[in-house]
Every structure is written in structure tokens, then in C-alpha cells.
Amino acid sequence: MFEAHPSSEDFNDFLINASRPANSMRNARVIRHLLGGCSECRDRLADAGWSESRLSRLFQPVPETSSQDEAASSTMAVNGHDYGRAFAVAERAVSAFLAPEQSSDEIPVDELMATLSELSARHQSERVKSDPRYATPPMVRAMIERSHSVRFRDAEQMLRYAQLAKLAVEDCSASLAGGEMKLADLRTRAWGQFGNALRVSSRIHEAEEALKTAQSYRRQGTGDPVLRAWLLERTSALAAFQNRFGEAIEMCEEAGQVYQELGQTHLFAFTLVQKATALIYSGETESALRTLLRAIPLIDHEEDPHLLLAACYNLVRCYIDLDQPDQALTLYAEIRELFQEFNDPLITLKLIWQEGRLLRDLGHLRAAEAALLQARKGYLERNISYEVAVVSLDLAAVYVKLGLTDEVKKTVLSAVPIFHALRVKLDTLAALLQLQRVADQEQQALELIRTLHSRIEALPRKPVG
């Protein structure tokens, strides 16, 4: 909602450009405000020269006894603009947004989810198809939430529950959802989560198609601005994964603007952290640092401790990349207790990896070696090739600094199939092999490792095999 009242620009876009899809979010907020019969806005418009009859047409809702077409035609165009049609379209969207779902108090969500979790993947799909209780909005939302909740622990389970949500929502009726537009919103959520889960599983082409489907459903829905921002977040994450960092940053900013306008401070902080991540990978570390410092005070730790962890992790990385290891260490020491709250394996691996990099830059090379070996082993076991490749380069840098030429060569040799799996260009593979030849020349070897880092970080992440 507006913090105070719509601006003149808001009214102008609502009345003149209401049919433009880009203005649907603003139009929905204007219509809600006007339906409240705001006397202050009425006075402002009167001062601007609006006639009493024109104001009456704007501030009075379409009578329930009139059809939408009658309502549109009964409100005559003023100065060439069909305000009645714009108003009717916006009111219809708001009415759909506010429409209640059919009562589902009798659906035992927790019980049904517990039953589902005990079944094999094949039997889960069969149960969702055969039991109509799963094809209801509460169950679809529960499956989406379960998919989201395991994103750091189990990518396969994340994808499976997203698939189940997508399966269930296709059998959900409009009457249960509260109307066709509310059903389209629910399908947007299910397909959006499915697309995000596909991205996490590195199934990039399928993720693109799923998110396009989600966007198509969103256009058929109520125009809920929060849903639009939510989908922008997931589309931004895919764009960053594909190294389209400029697009990712723009989408984060667009989603963030929605959350700011709606007073959703924590969700706005999420978009800032996501934007900072894209800035880091695009090489704009100083901008990322400023963005994170802006985001952290806005994060609700109780609501989303993972977000605070991600922000702090990236802040430490910024200091490392900016060659400020002392500041990175000070921050790491302050937030170490926060890190220990989590037992998600992928989070643990990221923290071990970061600790290894930090120890390396501070000169504690043997301790760095142990941490990086542990991180590389964990990523290898999970077939996460991108991380294996980058950790291998970090480990090679440690061995170069220790003067352990044979260990550098062994690390490079073990990394060759990983680089192949990433489908790197021939010049990148040649640079990796060259590292073996210059392993005993510290300055040249470290410069080559930095070059390889920049090339690997420009690649989409894919699983081994």
C-alpha cells in the first residue's frame, strides 16, 4: 500500500495508461486507495481542476448490478480517455485478488504431508494424482514450502516437492482457489518454485522454460505485486547463474522497489543480498560491499537466519577479494557463532571453504590446506563441479606458496576431468596444464591461478557427469 496517498503521477498513469501491463501493480494499489473513499485525494484532484461529476465517477465503485461492459460504457470518456473501462479492469483485478478460497478447514495438511514423506518418489506422484485432497491450495502451498525449506540440504528433494506441487496445482479447481485469477496466481507459485528447483539442480534449459510458464500464469492472475516481485527474484537468480549479471541486478532492483513500496523491509533486504551476489560475480566487489552493508541492518534474523548468514558470508568474501584479510578475519570471528547455528551440509562446506581462503590469505597455509581439502572432498562427493574446480585452484595457490611443486601438479592433474566436465574453452584448459609447468615459479603460477579463477567464475555451474 501507499505510505500516504497516490501522487499525481500515480493518478495520471492509472487513468491514461491503465491498460499497460507495466502499470498493473501501481493500478491495483491506486484502486484499493480510491475504494476507501479518500477525502484528501478527492480534495487534491478538485484543486487540480477536476469537476464534481468527474470525481464522482472516479471515486464511486462500479455498481454490483451493472455488468462490466455496462460499467465501462456508462462512464463516458473525459478528454479522450476512457476512465470507466480502466476503472472496471482495475476493480476486477482487485476483486479477484481479494476473493476468498473455498473453506479447506477439513484438510489435514500436516497429516497428508507426513504420509507423503514416507512414500517413494514414484508413489508420491501416484498419491498426489489419485487423492483429490492434494489438489487444494493449502496442500500446494505446503509442498512449495517443503521444497523451499530443503534448498540448502537436498537439491533432489527440493526438486521432487516442487514437481509434486506443480502436479497438484494442475488438478486444482478454480472454485477451490477462489476464482480463475487466484488459481493462476497459485500456478505461478508452483511453476516458479519448480523453475527455481531446476536451477539449483543445474537443469538450466528446463528452468528457463518453467519460469516462462510461471510468467505466463502470472499475467493471467490478479496482478499481486508481491507475487510479481517473488517471481522476479527467482528469474534474477537464474540470470545470475547464466552470468547475465546486468539483467539479474535490474530484476533485483525492480523486485526491491516493489517491497519498498509495500513496506516489506525484510524482503527488500533479500533483494539487496541477491543483488550483492550478482555484483560479486560480475567483479563489482566494492559495490557489492556497499549493498551488503545497507542490507544487513534490515534483515530479520528470527524470520530468516539463512539470509543473515548469506549476507555475512558474502561480506567476508568481499573483504577477502578486496585484499583486506584482517577485516575479513575480524568479521568472521564476530559471526562465527551465527555460522554454528546451521547444520546444512552445503552451508557447512561453503563456510569451510571460506575459512580455508581466509587462512591462506593470512599466511596460515597448513591450516588452509586442511580446510580446502575438506571442502573439495565434500563437493566431489556431491558432484558439484563448479565448486570443485574453484576450490582446486585455491588449494593449488596454497601449495604454490608452500613451495610444494609436486602437490601443485597432483592438484592440477586431478582437476583436469573437472574442467572437462565444465566444458571450458581450450585456452582455459591449456592454461590449467601450463600451471603444471610453472608450479615452481611462485609469481607466475599465482598470476595464472588468478586468470583461471576469472575464467571459471564466468562459467555457469554444472554437476559433474
Gross morphology is globular
What is the percentage of strand-forming residues? under 5%
Measured distance between first and last alpha carbons: 49 Å
Which consecutive residue ranges, at least 5 long each, have pLDDT under 50? 16-22, 60-81
The main sheet comes to: none
Order of secondary-structure elements: HHHHHHHHHHHHHHHHHHHHHHHHH
Counted up, domains total 4
Mean pLDDT: 82
Helix-residue proportion: over 70%
Number of helices: 25
Helix-strand makeup class: mainly alpha
Query: What is the β-strand count?
Result: 0
Radius of gyration: 27 Å
Report on this model:
This protein has 465 residues and is mainly α. The protein has 25 helices and no strands. The longest helix has 21 residues, at 180-200. It is globular. It starts with 7 loop residues before the first helix and ends in a 9-residue tail after the last helix.
Task: Briefly say what this structure is.
By secondary structure, the protein is mostly helical.
What topology emerges from the helices and strands here?
Elements: H1 8-16, H2 24-35, H3 39-47, H4 52-59, H5 68-74, H6 83-98, H7 109-117, H8 121-130, H9 137-149, H10 155-170, H11 174-177, H12 180-200, H13 204-219, H14 225-241, H15 245-261, H16 265-281, H17 285-295, H18 305-321, H19 325-339, H20 345-361, H21 365-381, H22 385-402, H23 405-421, H24 426-437, H25 442-456
Helix pairs in contact: 2-6, 5-6, 8-10, 9-10, 9-12, 10-12, 12-13, 12-14, 13-14, 14-15, 14-16, 15-16, 16-17, 16-18, 17-18, 18-19, 18-20, 19-20, 20-21, 21-22, 22-23, 22-25, 23-24, 24-25
